[in-house]
Every structure is written in structure tokens, then in C-alpha cells.
Amino acid sequence: MIRGIHPALLVLAVCSALVPGGVAAQTADPTVDGPKLRVVLPSTVAPLADVYLDGLPLADLADMPSGAISRSVPVPAGTHHVDLFADGADPVRTPALATALVEFGDAGLRTVAVRGDASAMIIDDAASPPAAGASSAGASSAGASLRLVNL
What is the reported pTM? Predict the structure, then answer.
């Protein structure tokens, strides 16, 4: 272990620097082909959850296991209600586990992260290089980046 850095995290950081687009390279570039949604579901909310957009289930985000981070899925531009329901719950008769009103532009990636108290945090995952003069820890604009979020 390198002074407080777990080996798995070090491998993840090195791989992120080597793969164009970082770890998210397995999904499409969030700035291409319109807006996208990703959901983070902590283990404290429900064993499985279904994600709804404006009252309709998103088949690509059905049966999300607890502790999961979904892949990004395309959504229409505009303002949308994103709701998470326990797997198999009737959304007409059952209250949502979490809900968020999310504005999607013409492109980009928004992450709805459900907190342990079932509130939602909306994260704008804009991929942008560091500002002029800001430290990038030696990475080029195509290099790795890391965002930590405390839910």
C-alpha cells in the first residue's frame, strides 16, 4: 500500500489515466448524442429499485441493485421528474423512494445520486479541463479526473 492509498484505488486511477475518457470509457461521451442520465443508488434505500422518467419506467434502469451506479442512458432535453421506486412497486399507489426535478440541456450528463435519507443530489457531470492556472496533478486535458461525493 502506498501511504494511505489502497492498491485497488491506485490501479483504478492509473487505468483512468491510460484509457481515453477515463473509467467511463465504456459509456458514450456525455456530450455526444444529446443529454444522458445516470443514477447512483446507495445500499440503504432499497435492495432493488426501478427508475422512472416523467411517470414512465426506464427499461434500461429497471431492477437497479443497491449500491449500484447505472450506466448513462439517453433522455430528451428539457425538465423531467426522475423518481425511484422499490422494484415492482405500483408508482400510482406507492410513494417514491426518492424524487428529483432535473434540467437536461441539449447535451451532457446528469447524475441523480440518492442519499441515505432518500433525498436526491443532482450532479452535473460536465467534462471540462482544469481552469487556466489550476493544478491538474500532472494530467493532460485528456487525462484522469476524480470527483468525490459524500452521500
Answer: 0.67
